[in-house]
Model the fold of this input.
Amino acid sequence: MRDVAIIGIGMTDFGELWHDSLRDLFVKAALAAMDDAGIAHLDSMYVGCMTPGLFTGQEHIGSLLADYLGQAPVPATRVESACASGGLALRCGFFEVASGASDLVLCGGVEKMTDVSGGRATYALATAADQDYESFHGVTFPGLYAMIASAHMAKYGTKREDLARVAVKNHANGLLNPHAQYRMPVTVEQVLSSVKVADPLNILDCSPITDGAAAVILCPADKAKKLAKGRAVKILASAHATDTIALHQREDLTWLKSTAVAAEKAYKMAGLKPADVDFAEVHDCFTIAEICVTEALGVVKRGKGGEAVRSGYTARDGKFPVNPSGGLKSKGHPVGATGIAQVHEVVTQLRGEAGKRQLKKARRGLTQNMGGSGGSAVVHILEVMR
Amino acid sequence: MITPPVVRRNTPQRYRLEANKCAKCGKVFFPPRLVCDACRGRKFAPVTLADTGKVVACTVIRTPPTGFSDLSPYCMGIVELKGGTRIQCQIADCEPERVKIGLPVTLEFRRVQEDGESGVLAYAYKAVPAR
Amino acid sequence: MAGIVGYGAYIPRYRIRVEEIAKVWGADAPSYKKGLMLREKSVPAPDQDTITIAVEAAKNALKRAAIPPAKIGAVYVGSESHPYAVKPTGTAVAEAIGAIPDCHCADLEFACKAGSESMFIAFSHVKSGEMEYAMGIGADTSQGAPGDALEYSASAGGAAFIMGTKDVVATLDVQYSFMTDTPDFWRREYMHYPRHGGRFTGDLAYFKHVRGGVEGILKKSKMKPKDFRYCVFHQPNGKFPTRMGKELGFTEEQYRAGLLVPTLGNTYSGASPIGLSAILDEAKPGDRILMCSFGSGAGSDAFIFTATARLPKIQGRARKTRDYLDTNPVYLEYGAYTKFRRKILKNVED
Done:
């Protein structure tokens, strides 16, 4: 396999973008990434999108987006793994370049979520859970993560305030991210007194409904230095793992096995230990998710995810910053775009272009993108190219 | 989805808790599976799950999906049935906030969903606090 | 000898008090309570209907009978609130208890008499030897128009009986039916709520037909009121069955056990069957029981049972009727009640 590098990134602002359609969002992000890479044509493209059919009524978006990007007849593939669709799109493109089949591949993600009512959006998202044995009974995604939280609190004594601190930290980070949907600081008290959604989770524990798109351009690492003019980032590892999509069928409700397995494979592929990575962008769709993810990634020990945020370990100025972008929580969560937007942030940090939120130490970064309540997980490790 | 084929296909599970058990390693699956995820065995015997158990995780749903608003707020839980199999369902006939992990429950037959005003009705189990 | 081999009841947990309804309509609660001899009524949760109530009652009956469900040859459900206008309730019940597919099934409707009709037909199958076991159920989530007198009483609940000839817990000794065509209470197709003939529903409907049923079965059996340890009549309110009992020569001692209406309300097709289930919960071997239903339209089914030595062995196998009625009720305000009963006009959810 050839080494693969990222030579261009682009994303739209995240938010309620009433004037932009699904195709507008994608094309804006894709053009930004192509301009950043300084390229005008692609060999191939992959687009992560969870459910354009339910959110906008549009399927067959691979061709649609290639056409509107002015790149038809290139091969264009839509990739779906619920909220991990973006991360998985990157993995597909990674293999296409690594295999030698193509040189210039765009990996993008997009979701247009605000064309439907809140009820329909909730329904669309709930299709990532087991339709017949979870969603049927009236559970929602906040509900599934709330049950994980209830189990984590019972098993490890994680405090309600620890969940709130994840939101406080990520909103503090997102405040400095010009692309973020909710650029506002929040306090523990505000999180605890915000509207209840699914006990113990309140609205400020939840990532929002968001429109947005992000894209990156891949090429073989040996061509990247010249193309990217010193701003290239190498993909050290790409890993993917699955688990039962029904939460109740997992042996340990608090353990995100797909993330743990994908992380283990990624560390092995990169020849690294968790301590060799400087920071991570992780899938904090709900505050409890970040706590469980940091444990599954091996950043902290099992059961210590709450303590990690409480002690400041995962803060932007902590030992291991998590979600310097603001995470899904503050930046927004256009589900199909999220996995690519995470990569966008890591590349920005590795390039040293993160402005006010720039981390001091950013040589290697990790992304963890998760589908459903953890039924799928995609982990990438990126390193700045010298 | 609440359509006639989906309702009918799930009836043995939702009405009677029919599961299956791997003939080789004994692992029980609900709903029944064609291949065992533990030993890859493909031979199974039918079993019926117990209708009593205890809550192992729970939440109160306050922003319900379409079709569930008359019940809101309601409790959702993961229930470990006697015998060890876990299911996910609503915990009804309770004050939702007072449901705690460890609560003993029994399953009752309830109307879970319906396809609008004129479509089919979908029935299944819900847990209620045990007496 | 043919009789009941298993029985079970089910009553939802929610209740509403007469005062709560009366205050909305500016009615005088004390006079309603006194006039109807009724304090509160059961209310089905939004996820309960005649099918769910019938299934739970049937499961309790099956626990007591302890027979393989596949041996049940017929399931009949009497109700005036079948969840579907077209599509049977009985198939859902038979499926849920595992009586399918070798099973005969029918839904019955005869106002409040449909439950005893289902029992009547189930008895016929086992008496004839056509079936080893047959199940009869009466269950309702009764309808009463907002503000109508019926709103104070129309409630929810049901009872199921498995009939057979082996291991009988109460023998069926005599049965008798009495009927005329009398328009005292009805609901036309596509209408939400039933209508009734007001005071006409008393003397010429309820009292005439219950009297006819009871006097007919006493004549047929050559028995007298004092020959019974228990009696239960259709109970649309507390006043009617009490007055009827006294007029026919029965004492409070005899009807007390089966009179659930003061805190249950009128469960329509379930009313006299649930009363019978409460009697069977406490009856002793040799006790003779008289049951007489009433259904508007109008008619009555009367039965005479005798408890056998087996009854005490099965009484504790399932939850008792009084336990459902008396334990942990949850009282609703009128707003929640109207939501539960779907009396609020809403937008179609999006």
